[in-house]
Amino acid sequence: SHMIEDGDTFWDYPNATTDLGYYMNIAEAHSSINALATYVTGQGFETNQSTQIVLGNIIGSGEDSIHDVLWNQVVMTEALGDAMAEIVRNDKAHLINLKPLWIGDMRSVWNKQGMIKHYVHIPSNKIFKPSKVFHTMRNRIANQVHGTSIFTALKKIIDLKAEALDDEGLIRHRE
Known about the structure:
Blueprint: E1 2-5, E2 8-11, H1 16-25, H2 27-42, H3 49-56, H4 66-80, E3 82-89, E4 95-101, E5 106-110, E6 116-121, E7 126-128, E8 133-137, H5 150-174
Antiparallel strand pairs: 1-2, 2-5, 3-4, 3-8, 5-6, 6-7
């Protein structure tokens, strides 16, 4: 999912569904990532009263709090390498919401200089300016246009463990 056209680089997050599957189905990874997100978001942050009011009105996709949105952002960044949320502002340019976006539906477009030009929500073809997307990346190195999922390093071990458990089940079945 790394293409170049007119000097721009596109990235479509091809491993999003696979990495989400690892996160959802591997208990140790699931609980470790959740614990990290709970620790990080549980640290809190200091702000002034007007910012507290704004953040108190964040509803995410409907019933979320700012804590829920940020917790999800940390989890998805760790598990998938990248996470995005739509930054919603009112007509006075004040922040009114942060809505999580499924990274598997997104494309980031980068120019030759390595700067994000825009994001595309692929199913709707909606284009977002960089200022409209809160994008976090895990372990981005050099000039990569995406982060690196924790599962990139763990896939081999996870798959070998699963294979060994399957083999053990077959062996026990034959006894």
